[in-house]
Amino acid sequence: TYAPKLILLDISDINCIRDVAKEILNCYGCVDILINNASMKVKGAVQSISLELDKKIMDANYFGPITLTKAILPNMISRRTGQIVLINSIQGKIGIPFRAAYAASKHAAVGFFDCLRAEMEEFDISVSTVNPTFICSYHRQPAPGNWEASIWK
User: Fold this and answer.
1) pTM above the 0.85 mark?
2) Residue 112 belongs to domain with CATH number
3) What is the C-alpha to C-alpha distance for residues 140 and 134, in angstroms, rounded to an integer?
4) Of the candidates 57, 50, 59, which has an alpha carbon nearest to the alpha carbon of residue 103?
5) CA 54 to CA 67: how far, in whole Å?
6) pLDDT, mean over the chain
7) Domains in the chain, number
8) Could you read off the pLDDT of 96-122 as tens digits, one per residue?
9) pLDDT at residue 41 above 70?
10) How far is residue 136's CA from residue 149's CA, in Å, rounded to a whole number?
C-alpha cells in the first residue's frame, strides 16, 4: 500500500497536466486506475455564452481528461494493464437547451473514449464511460457581469 499524497491539478490548465502526471508516476511508479471525474458547466443561451467560455468548458471537459489520459497511457501500455474511466454526463449523449458548450464537450469526450476503448483492447486496458443523469454540483452564484462565477465546478 502507498501513503496518500495530495497532488493539486486544475484540469482546465492543459499546460500543467503533463507535469502533474509525471509527478504521479515518479511518486508511485504506475497508475492502475485513472478516473477522469472533473467537469465544468455553464447554463445560458448559445448567443449569450462567449467563445472564450466555450473554450474554457472544452478545455476542462475534453482536452483536460484526454491530456491526462495520454500522459498516463504509455505507462499502462508498457505494463499491459490498467483501467481508465470517464465520468461523463447523459448530456454527452443527448443535448438539452441552454447547455450547448457543456453538451458539446461531453459529446467530444464520449467520442474520444469510445475510440480509445477499441484501441486499448489489444493491450488489456479497460476503458469505460459512465454517463449519469443530472447530478447536484457545486455552484457559485455569479455577480452581475461576472461570467466566470457562473461556472459549475
Assistant:
1) no
2) 3.40.50.720
3) 18
4) 57
5) 18
6) 87
7) 1
8) 899 999 899 999 999 999 999 999 999
9) yes
10) 17
Q: What is the mean pLDDT of residues 7-12?
A: 89
In this structure, is residue 153 part of a structural domain?
no
What's the chain's length in residues? 153
Q: Across residues 139-143, what is the average pLDDT?
A: 53
- Is 92 part of a structural domain of the chain? yes
| Domain assignment of residue 11, yes or no | no
C-alpha cell of residue 28? 508511485
Is 124 part of any domain?
Answer: yes
Which 8-state DSSP code applies to residue 143? P
- Provide the residue range defining the domain that includes 79: 30-132
CB atoms within 10 A of CB 21: 23
- The percent of residues in the chain predicted with pLDDT above 90, rounded, is 63
Tell me the catalytic residues: 102
Are the C-beta atoms of 7 and 20 separated by less than 8 Å? yes
3-state secondary structure of 139: strand
**Quick check: helix, strand or coil at residue 151?**
coil
Provide the sign of the torsion angle of the four alpha carbons 73, 74, 75, 81, taken in this order: positive
Rounded mean pLDDT, 80-87: 97
CA distances 153 to 5, 45, 57, Å, are 22, 19, 10
